Structures are given as structure tokens and as C-alpha cells.
Amino acid sequence: MKKIKEEKSNTKKRNGKIIVLLVMTGVIVGIVYAGYMSNNASPSAAPAVDGIECNTSEITTFHIHAHLDFYVNSNHLTVPERIGIVDNKCLYWLHTHDSSGVIHIESPKSQEFTLGQFMDIWKASGDFPIYGATAKIFVNGQLVNTSSNDTKINKHDEIALVYGNVPPAIPSFYQFDPGE
Measured over all CA atoms, what is the biggest interatomic distance in the chain, rounded to whole angstroms? Predict the structure, then answer.
């Protein structure tokens, strides 16, 4: 009888250890998963702008490039690097990597994007150079009669955004690097 009681006691201890081990494993898995999700969640470090999220990595399901030239009173200004890139924490689906003027559109789904959305992301950074003025918009060298919110960005478009005096020559083409 004593032997049976010892076996029951040992079985209970073993079952107790297994339960504690399973609970601890569950807690560890939960912590690891939560850490993973916090590092890879979308949106992350910045709020969405015009429905465009800021993801922790580039998503290239839909991936195109366009080029933007920016003019104020006929003077060409450099489009800043890292528009739409937040402190190395996240990238908006519309962003620039360098000061070449190339707009990268890298989205989790194929959809139309507008110049206005890109400008709103730029404005959210606090570095947009012009406020309260209306721009003339040229796409592939042609003046368009649409607002920035209605001007679609298409693959390899050359877009000129002009505030004030129009320069004597508006670019109509941009030579993208191979593969862009």
C-alpha cells in the first residue's frame, strides 16, 4: 500500500512538473511572439498618412518608380533624401532613398497613388518647403489640369512640381537606372 502511495505521489509530482514546464514554454513562446510582432508590425513607428502605412521593411508586391523635379520661381530645388523614411524605423509606401528625386512606390497591393499622397508624406516630415501656394504640375513635360490629389503617379513618370514662375524648360523624361 505504501508503494502505491509513493507511486501516486511521484506521478503527481511528475505531472506537476510537466504542467509547470508547459506553462513556462507557453509564456516564453508568447514573449517571443510579442517581441517579433512589435518589431515587424505594421504600421509601426508612425501613423498612416492618407491611408499609406509606414512598415518596418520594404514591401514590394507593387513596386514602381517615378521621378520628381521641384521648382520655386524657376529655381530647381533638390528633392530631399529619406522623405517617408522615419528614423530607420519604418518606410511609407511612397518614399525617397536619396536626393535624386526618384520616388519609390513599394506597396503590399497594386493600387493607384497620387502626387498629393507623396506631398502629404513629405509635409508630415515637416520639411516641405512651400505652404499655402498652388503648384503647376507637369507630367512627362505636359501641363496637367489636375490637383496634386488627382495626379496619378505611374511607372517612370517624370513629374515637375512648379511653384511661382515656370522655368524655361520643363523636363519630359528621366533616365532611370537599369532595373528601376
Answer: 105
Beta-carbon count within 10 A of 134 CB: 9
One pLDDT digit (tens) per residue for the chain, 180 residues:
555 555 555 556 665 565 544 444 444 444 434 444 444 444 367 999 999 999 999 898 999 999 999 999 999 999 999 999 998 799 999 999 999 999 999 999 999 999 999 999 999 988 898 888 899 999 999 999 999 999 999 999 999 999 999 999 999 999 999 988
Same domain flag for 90 and 33: no
Shared domain for 28 and 99, answered yes or no, is no
* Single-letter amino acid code for the residue at 148: S
Q: What is the pTM of this model?
A: 0.74
Q: Report the amino acid identity of residue 39.
A: N
Identify whether residues 74 and 152 lie together within a single domain.
yes
**Same domain (yes/no): 102, 60:** yes
Contacts of 162 (CB under 8 A, 6+ apart): 71, 135, 136, 137, 138, 170
Q: How far apart are CA 157 and CA 13, in angstroms?
A: 71
